[in-house]
Queue: 4 jobs
Job 1
Amino acid sequence: MSVTEYKHITRVAGKDIEGSKKIVVALSEIRGIGYNLAQVILQSLNINPSLRIGFLTDKEITEIVTAIRNPSRTGIPSWYLNRQKDMDNGGNNHFITSDLDFAVSSDIEREKSVMSWKGYRH
């Protein structure tokens, strides 16, 4: 790759990430994506995890974003997801960024509405 194709800042899933970081570390900066899940996503997409994120093409970035938005379609097991057997819809979901914050706050409010001590501790 040439220097002209390098992006100093790359936007992935609504977060600006410095282009000099390795892909695994950069993806783990996104709220809701951990280091292990980032490795599994990159393995399922056959992307080298030691590459710098600034050298990725737009096509590879869109593949990563679609895998983050819906990891079940890329073959990631359901036990990697952060919302298994969700109370709202019964399915396995994976939330990131503000969706994760909203889901946690709605869980706390649900616990408070049923007068659970668990809801009042948070």
Job 2
Amino acid sequence: MKSSNNNNLKHLARKLRKQGTKGEAILWRDVLKARQMRGHQFNRQFIIENYIVDFVCRELKLIIEIDGYSHFVKSEEDYRRQTKLENLGFQFLRFPEAMVVYRIDEVVTEIDYAVECLENQMGKDI
């Protein structure tokens, strides 16, 4: 039997997918959707434990977060959340919203490098 908390998170995740930020939309459409990043599947607004992450590649255990204005107020909460997920084996990349919107090439380079390093750690030659 599923908990009501999980059902609430599913509803919220769907809502966040529809009402994402400009940076999230750009990153999803131009970089992560449809296995565009080195052939890896990424999910958007995905639930892990009791948290919703912006993007995750479950195969590589890589989470990508876009930090908009609201994250300045939630920095302590973000730190606890990130620590919990890192303890589950996930690695994080965080980008400010403005960087994604105005310097997407730099963001793509950083993501590509991180994915390549994780592939190498897993012994993959993709």
Job 3
Amino acid sequence: MTEITAAQAKTIIATAMAKGEEAGFKPLSVVVLDAGGHVKAFERADGAAPGRFGIAHGKAYGAVMLGMPGSAQMARAEAQPYFMAAVNGVYGGQVVPVPGGVLVKADGVVIGAVGVTGDTSENDVIAAMAGLSAAGLHGEA
């Protein structure tokens, strides 16, 4: 597999949103990016704040551009804040280095990322992983 398909992106989003509703999470927003960091699909639940696209996108964008999940980005930001500040400068402030940005690989190659926001970072990851599983993909959170 060399890319996340449009059908898989729709499945990821639908399942992540359903997982959030079923678990009683706050309204979620979910974005799926391809390996180049381009939006494949996005959805914002009713009641989610309008600015959630930027956060979901930033979580996923950092994962795909740096080749590391949000948890690893956060650890790097805590250990070397100047590095993440420089990265954000390079990427125009688009990186949100926290959990909820899930890197998607196939055969060791990055094929995209999922960004979820709206609840706690831990719950965002739970929703993202449920979506990836339903689409037959594996993520690094």
Job 4
Amino acid sequence: MSKLDELEDSCRDDIIADLQLLIRQPSVSAIKQGLLDCANIVASMMRKAGITTEIMYFYNKSKGIDGIADNDIETDINVPPLVYGEVKSKVNPNGRTILFYNHYDVQPVDPIELWKSDPFSGKVEENYIFGRGAADDKGELITRIKAVEYYLKKMGDVPCNIKFLVEGEEEIGSLHLKEYLSVYKKKFECDAVVWEGGFVDSKERPIISLGQKGILSVELVAKGPSMDTHSSLAVLIENPAWQLIRALNTLRDKNGRILIKEWYKEMRDFTSEELSMIENEPFDENAIKKEHGIESFLNNITGFEAKKAFAGIPTCNICGLVSGYGGQGAKTVLPSKAIAKLDFRLVPDMVPEIQFERLKKHLQEHGYANHKDSEKIDGGDNNLEIKLLDGEPAARTPINHPFVNIVKEASNKIYREAIINVSSAGTGPMYYFHDILKVPCVCIGGGDILNRVHSPNECMKIDRLIKTVKWIGAILEKAQY
């Protein structure tokens, strides 16, 4: 009999209480809110579960030292600490080591007026718990901790060796994770990584995702007069908003194809096995359209083409446009500045830094010179400031890796047959685990399309959290062999 059969739903109250504790501690990395306090709560929670835990700090680079700090070395207070945990199996000390990657930071709560309750309350309504981080990623983190806690407190041991890496910068691009992994590569050594979270579809089928797209995030700033001025001067003064619109219009066509030269040059094609899996993968188009209030997808794509695009086609997206007056009523103003924030989703073999250089070259060739560039283009008085905000390469675990089968077999103990997903359309720092630790990463969890991740009223199903605890336990049991 599996030890999981003894894991009853009585853990519900513990899961709710611990998740509420985490939700009630704001930890917004974008504004550096409450990160150290949240790291301490995570560490305390892990120690209480019986996990050997330490908080790892980053060296102060102004002192000329790279890497992670010991307690006697001055640390960089601007870098959120990483929470590390480890449990060595007594019965299987030379067996596999599974590393759980999660993060304790969350997205900003804006727009606050759209929340139905305090975003940091952890309010419970029937089968749902609400709050920023309920799904991404505090809820998923709790499921990993609780699964390990169950084995340690009920069995006195774990089926295989376990490590935790919980960072505080995922929502702003995991700015220092590469350094953490590089400097302490030996510490994080493992056989496989269970990624921060995952999804269950509308038919209660768990989705096992094997990859993530990369990302390049940039900011474009067009500058006009030294101050906002009267719109009657539009006949004499160029409006920077029009300048920015013209620049943006050169980046992609109406069908979404990116027009930047050589943008797709290194793009990795799907293998025949991946294409076959994508073709056979269930994809609930109607559920997606209903949730987002749309009638059709871009270019009216459906079926196989929609699934293929979601898993492995690069994108150019405008995340935000800011210029002039957007309040109630009219204001006849000519703005002094216009700002656009963009993200480009990348696929394996596309390097963010190379793509950024291609973007800069494209804009320069269209007459837009970077304010910060000393070299100006002849006749080019259309100046844009082009900033690289962050970037992460894409990663993809091979379909036939043995760990994929372990995760799939474990899911069958808890759910109906799982769906293998070649790659998520989202982004995370998976590439660094592939590149530095040389290990497979598999995304699993209890989220679904209704979680409102990164949006107001984020929530998580409580019974799904319990199922995920059991799924994690099943993986640990399968991994011991």
